[in-house]
Design a protein that fits this description.
mainly alpha; globular
Length: about 300
């Protein structure tokens, strides 16, 4: 359940920040008359995301009656979820400093067009986060016990994100989003590695990949299935007491290089931003008179 809470918190905060930027822009511009259109776009994005999540579940439980087909469907959605998680993490890392300006520019263009354009712009700004959340949530809960726990954890994460966004918008409370997105990014990479591992397991069970019974390790005699740490490892990162060679190789082949790239990219961006800040603090040098004359 911690994995689904993290998914809701991360994706929810991204969506909340997007909505906060749009609302703040309209308030500052004195165009609060367009707020209903923004909320209509956000509501439509949420409704589509919920419908997409229902469709995934309905397809797996009702439309696909053959066991191998269900396993293959779950494997495909798991791999897609890993792709979206990875792209989202790196995109947010690079776009965090420019996303506010881009959203304001798009909203300004939409205001010039009309109310429908404003609603459509808000819809497009939020729907990506919603669809990602539905797909990642569906993939993360595969193999879990059938109860409402993961869903409530997801909603709890989203609610926490909304409360954080409201505090940041309405008060002087500030959160170091760089640290937040770095920590949640690392945890989500490990969650995605577990989702990929589960997807590979489904491919093996559906007969697409061999080696289901070729185990890389078996620590079932060490890990107590009823212990809290076993539940944490299994629920958060899909670290199971047994795993096939192919599953283990896939987990390592994804988690290790992606973590290295993510942390290296973080340090590179931090150094670049530091140099940029230092350069902005330096006094402007007088122009070369010769250059001025030539211009």
């Amino acid at each position: 359940m911690l994995a689904t809470y993290l998914i809701g918190l991360r994706e929810g905060l991204e969506a909340t920040l997007v909505v906060s930027i749009l609302v703040a822009f309209l308030v500052k511009a004195g165009r609060t008359d367009r707020l209903p259109q923004v909320w209509a776009g956000v509501g439509a994005a949420v409704a589509l995301s919920v419908g997409f999540g229902w469709l995934l579940s309905y397809t797996s439980t009702t439309l696909l009656r053959d066991y191998d087909q269900r396993e293959l469907f779950e494997a495909i959605t798991s791999i897609l979820a890993v792709v979206f998680v990875t792209a989202m993490i790196f995109w947010m890392r690079r776009a965090a400093r420019s996303i506010a300006g881009e959203l304001r520019g798009k909203l300004a263009d939409a205001l010039a067009v009309g109310s429908v354009a404003v609603a459509g712009m808000a819809f497009l700004a939020v729907v990506r986060e919603g669809l990602e959340t539905s797909l990642i949530f569906y993939s993360a809960v595969q193999g879990a016990e059938v109860d409402d726990g993961p869903l409530w954890s997801l909603l709890g994460g989203i609610l926490t994100a909304v409360l954080i966004g409201l505090l940041m918008y309405a008060t002087a409370v500030r959160i170091d989003l760089t640290v937040f997105f770095t920590v949640t990014g690392v945890l989500l990479i490990l969650v995605a590695a577990g989702i990929l591992k589960y997807g590979i397991h489904d491919l093996q069970e559906s007969g697409v990949l061999p080696g289901l019974n070729a185990l890389a390790y078996d620590v079932s005699g060490v890990l107590d299935p009823s212990a809290w740490y076993t539940a944490l490892l299994t629920g958060m990162f899909n670290v199971t007491p047994t795993a096939s060679v192919v599953e283990t190789v896939a987990w390592c082949a994804y988690a290790v290089p992606v973590l290295v790239l993510f942390l290296t990219d973080r340090n590179r961006n931090r150094n670049r931003n530091t140099r940029s800040d230092r350069a902005s603090d330096e006094p402007a040098r007088p122009a070369d008179p010769g250059v001025a004359r030539r211009l």
